[in-house]
Amino acid sequence: MGDKMLKLLPFVLLAISSVQQVSAAKNDPNTLSAKVAAKVMMEILHQPYNEHAYSDADANTNTNVDPDSNSDSYYSYHYRGPPQPSASAGGLQQKLASHGKYYFGACADPNTLNIASNVNVLKSDFGCVTPENSMKWDATEPNRGQFNFGNADQLVNWATSNGKMWDVCNEIFEENGSLRQSVFARVLGESFVTVAFQAARKTDPKAVLYINDYNLDSVNAKVNGMVSLVNRVNQANPGTIDGIGTQMHLQSGQGSTAQAVLTALAAANVKEIAITELDIVQAPVNDYTQVVNACLNTPKCVGVTVWGVSDTNSWRASSNPLLFDGQYRPKAAYNAIISAL
Ligand SMILES: *[C@@H]1O[C@H](CO)[C@@H](O)[C@H](O)[C@H]1NC(C)=O
């Protein structure tokens, strides 16, 4: 391991372990607290706890349509549990689970958990929540060495499921399938992916570890780059990456290519794949059902997460891309999915 690698490892791992701690289910007595987890990782590396480096300029490389564009985040958490008793019979979660899938999820954070109508829909229709922003790097460590898990803790407190799905690497690819410029790629090259996954595995052996990206919306260079990288990593070190997530922030009409994409991703050497941030401009019925059916028809696809409940809280609010309108009423696409399921 070179000097540069040694120097970088601590902050890669600190980021991972920092996030890991917040994710810990509160009712799991075996879970390490955030700081303890970070310290353990540092000790493993024989590095002082505070010796990590991170600069906004280094990580803020996003330029494309991307909900994380200002977040500087390569790590985020998803929660996954068995079908939730709290989801109503006949709701999205219950319907999708009846086909053997794990979850129909939505993103959430304290800002939307404060809205009663939103919470009602989360309870009736969704079995999984993904932190929208609260576990991104800029939220958990706004300044070097200054940690804030307040919003993340609120979300975890709200969530009741214990199963976890962890995005270890998020949005690391260029559109042409090569690795994006980042402090990780620049200094460590491709090996940062393996380093990050191995550290995540060590920190939380039970978590399902994902690599996740956007614009994997046709069988394009980025999809091929993703599949190739995952296969290289898992061939060299079997079982390193558990799953591939495709965000699916779609335009109208792109639902038609969802099946081809899922088939291509599922052909990679991974145990599972998932749709992680689905929303579709103007929420066309056809596109939404095509995407959900594509997951149903792909054995490795374990679940679908939509990027919000109501249009009014969407990062793309002006394009009304979600399943519930501004008054939290189900839209046509919602009804079509329920019928399809
Ligand atoms: C891929 O795209 C990036 C960003 O535009 C560029 O810097 C890089 O040179 C491209 N790589 C190849 C192999 O074309």
Automatic annotation (TrEMBL):
It is an enzyme of class 3 (hydrolase). One of its GO terms (molecular function) is endo-1,4-beta-xylanase activity. The keyword Signal applies. Keywords: Carbohydrate metabolism, Glycosidase, Hydrolase, Polysaccharide degradation, Signal. It catalyses: Endohydrolysis of (1->4)-beta-D-xylosidic linkages in xylans. Residues 86-340 form the GH10 domain. InterPro entries: GH, GH10, GH10_dom. SMART domains: Glyco_10. It comes from the Eukaryota. Its EC number is 3.2.1.8. SUPFAM superfamilies: (Trans)glycosidases. One of its GO terms (biological process) is polysaccharide catabolic process. Residues 66-77 have a biased composition (Low complexity). This is Beta-xylanase.
